[in-house]
Amino acid sequence: MQESQDESNLPASFTWKDAVFFSAALLFIYSQLFQLPFTPIYFDGDHLIPISNAMRMLDGEVMHRDFFHFAPPGTELIYAALFSIFGVKVWVLNIAIVLLTIAQVWLLWIFSRQVLSGSGVYLPAVIFLTVGFRQMGIDGSYRLFSVVFALAGIAVLMNRRSTRNLILAGGLCGLASFFVQPRGLVGIAGISVFLLWENYQNGFNVKSLLKSGLYLTLPFILVIIVTQSYFAWQAGLGNYYFDLVTFLRKHYPHDPLNNEFSYFSDVPGFGKYLETMSSQAAVFRFIRAGLPVIFYYALIPLTYFVLLFVIWKRKGSSVSPDLKAKLVLLCFAGLALAGGISAPTATRIYHVAIPGIVIFVWLFKQIPFTAKLTPICLFLLVLLGFSYAVQRQAIAKDQIDLPAGNAAFISKDSFGKIEWMNAHTERGDTFYEAFHPSFYFPLHLKNPTPFYLVRDSEYTPYFQVESIVAALEKDPPNLIVWEGTYSKPVGERMPGDNMEPLWQFVSTNYEQIEEFKGAGEFTLTSERDSEVWELKK
Which of 5, 181, 272, 519 satisfies CB 3.0 to 4.6 Å to 9 for a cystine? Predict the structure, then answer.
């Protein structure tokens, strides 16, 4: 095996090559989110949850008191601040995603330059952008905000585990928990395991270990108290505790997308492509859509175990203690972040894969003769990224002026839904969606209920359904977007399905006027029917 270069051989400052790399990365990311020069491309997704919440906060509502959410208000506060300055616009969301992605690229660069050298420093970030970003990384939700802060906490410890750095790392993990409450905790867990390992390597000094643990955990706890105590007081401690703790423990896993059984659920079926495409087109489509998914399932957590095995086998080798410590820190941090995923789909694995990608490239470079292959791989992936940028710009798009500004649509289904709804609503209308908050943001509509989505399982407990019905009776919207699979007699409902009172309210007071066939994006199969119901005159 060939040896990686030590940190001392790495560039100590930001070079012109780094400037070129970040400029190219920024252009690529921008090309995926904007139709040149300035038109934002609209993407549905989980980021519409905190965005619709932020809109409610700007209207004076109190999160966790007036409406429900299972995460702390960090993401909502960022979007509320941005919207208060720039307006509730699609381009603001897309710029936020651009900045989030650049932050992830920066973290990849920080980690890579600690353990890699030459062109290999850029390879992990290029893999991250070209393998998976288009289908899994265009996300402005709470998940990625929390990941960036947790990994920033890891980054400050790469060179030295000084008192100052441990305090800063603990504080950053505390901020990660302001976006997703378990994320900072698993970050602390990963760092703690590393500190235990490093202390053991240095002779196991219990006093030193305890001091390091205190420097790490006390700022973590302090930041959580400072960032969340006001919002817990404002919402009421009981409401805050239910939303952030009880709901996650008792109800959240009942959604099939939110538990361990979602593993491998999003691998595309090649047979489905063959049903609608030629064999050649099906192969090409599967390579584009399926291989990135399979790659990340294979990468995490296998890469971490391979690294630990390699380090164990190479005891006494010429790998410096400093390099080994950096790799092990990345390994334990990556394992902790991966272990903290509530639902291990490829998308959520991709979100926490940064340490794994860096380690994967390091392991790749340990194989003989790969020194010449690294720049070739880099060139081919850059070429692939360039083709993706050209393709994204060249593909036909539909554009429409919305209350949230002009936007371009790649998906015909999404455009058709938005166009129809835009023609049948006015800015500020009361409106309700059962399955996912897809329309509130682009059309500036208002949800009269405390909940942005419901599920036909114990994910949505009966008392929440009752509160939705009460809110709709008090302020009935003209239109409701209903999930067709929720319409069924009582006898056909599975245990835990609490939708009957809501379905009775909809079917009694509304009539169906439109149906969007196969337009769903948030089920295991991504195939469902959305129905539009209008209030009876």
Answer: 5
Q: Is residue 121 part of a domain?
A: yes
Interhelix angle 181-201/142-155, rounded to 10 degrees, is: 20
Contact yes or no for 11/327 (Cβ under 8 A): no
Q: Are residues 442 and 418 in contact, defined by beta-carbon separation less than 8 angstroms?
A: yes
**What residue numbers bound the domain in which 75 lies?**
7-141+253-390
CB 80 within 8 A of CB 58: yes
How far apart, in whole angstroms, are the C-alpha atoms of residue 296 and residue 342? 16
Q: What Å distances lie between residue 329 and 1, 203, 210, 256, 355, CA to CA? A: 22, 18, 18, 33, 9
| Chain mean pLDDT for the chain | 91
Percent of residues, the chain, with pLDDT higher than 90: 78
Which of 124, 167, 130, 173 lies closest to 148, judged by CA? 173
Q: 212 with 170: CB under 8 angstroms?
A: no
- Tell me the whole-structure pTM to 2 decimals: 0.92
Q: How far is CA 217 from the centre of its chain?
A: 25
pLDDT tens-digit profile of 278-302? 777 778 778 778 888 999 999 999 9
- Is the domain of 475 the same as that of 384? no
Do 358 and 272 have their domain in common?
A: yes
